[in-house]
Amino acid sequence: MRMARRFARRVRAPVHAHGIPVIDCKRGERKHQIAEDYLVEDYLVEDYLAEHTVDRGVFLILVARAVAPVWEATRSAGGVRAA
Description:
alpha+beta; two-stranded parallel ribbon; two-stranded antiparallel sheet; 4 strands
């Protein structure tokens, strides 16, 4: 848990400094649709592309929290691992 919080802080701090939006998504949301809508609404893609050269970069960060499976292993008396 501590590593996750540290990672989130290290991602969000420079992103915030550069004005890149971070959107927390819920399960079932279509992330690609959110990104497409964001581009269309905020940049008006046709006008933006007419005035700017587009290169690689980050324009939006979508955060999705996935459920992670938890495994528990124990060692038997004979030294064999059992799940």
